[in-house]
Amino acid sequence: MMIYGIGIDVVEVDRIEAAIEKQGELFLRKLFTQKEQEYCSRQKRPALHFAARFAAKEAVSKALGTGIGGQAGWLEIEVIRGESGAPTMFFHGNAADFLTAEGIASVQVSLSHARDYAAANAVAIRNPV
Questions:
Q1: What is the distance of C-alpha 108 from the center of its chain?
Q2: In sequence order, which residues have a C-beta less than 8 Å from that of residue 54 and are 6 or more positions away?
Q3: Rounded to whole angstroms, how far apart are CA atoms 106 and 90?
Q4: Residue 127's pLDDT is what?
Q5: Looking at residue 113, what DSSP letter applies?
């Protein structure tokens, strides 16, 4: 296996919290899948968990070298808590097609959050050529 790319992102939780308060469901539906919304909404401070997923999606887009957009949209990059508790990445639509075309076997992500900030780093791993 080879590293295809790495990415990192840090988000101010207050920015996400303010966007949720101002735009509500419109903001959530635009950036987060139904599963992500369900998980985050069940948490004691949902904005903290939404911010971590926002950071993860940005970090993944940087690891892929695509940015958020045509090749990897907000709803095509999904962060789900695995059975072990670790975040697991799922890709849909154009993002899934991009990973296949580039020979990317997996994307590993790590999330962290505190009262004011959420952070994520991502590593995209390519199959040997």
A1: 11
A2: 9, 11, 16, 31, 118
A3: 9
A4: 84
A5: E
The pTM assigned to this predicted structure is: 0.95
The confidence score (pLDDT) of residue 70 equals 81
Check: CB of residue 120 under 8 Å from CB of residue 126. no
Whole-angstrom Cα distance, residue 64 to residue 48?
Answer: 24
Q: Which residues are catalytic?
A: 62, 113
Give residue for tokens 């075309």: 101
Measured between its terminal Cα atoms, the distance across the chain in Å is: 9
Judge whether 58 is annotated as a binding position.
yes
CA dihedral sign of residues 69, 101, 65, 27 = positive
Paired tokens of 29: 């539906």
Q: What does the block give as tokens for 71?
A: 């090749």
pLDDT (tens digit per residue) in 56-100: 999 999 999 999 988 999 999 999 998 899 999 999 999 999 999
